[in-house]
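User: Could you check the structure of this?
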Amino acid sequence: MTGFSDAELVALVLNGNVDSFSGLVRRHQDSCARFAVRMLGSRVDADDALQSAFMRAFRGLRGCKDPEHFGGWLYQIVVNECRTYASRQRRREQRFPSSSAAIEGAVAPGSEQEVDPDVGGHIERALSTLPTDQREAFLLKHVEELTYEEISEMTGVSISALKMRVKRACDALRGQLEGVYNG
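Assistant: Sure, the predicted structure tokens are below.
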């Protein structure tokens, strides 16, 4: 299935060769997974959101108006699934604090805690504190390296609003990371 274009694979699936969908999944899985993990902060959560996104894509494949751009259409679904998953997760966390948050909160005042020297860990934690819309725009622009036009088409957000979200995300990340390394 690697010799087929996205449009050819979509046509095969729509004509009854459902196994061809796995070729589409394999082709786009890595970039979608990379985005979902960074958006949700956990591989387990990302896997759940991706499974749901791929199922939605399969069931709604007839709605893909431009099969040549299947990847962008799929990305829209992944972005929406991550938003939905993150929203559900926030509601759950408001009702039930995570056990790690409870443990961290139980540390005695004045006791020393290990600081993670891992730069990637600091960045991931800083990303996780951003509002969802800023994190999403930042990741799509700077990690997935999409253009503002592509992001706007995917998310339905204006280019000027996306630029503002990315700027705010960069400012917030810079402030947090400067605090870590200069503090």
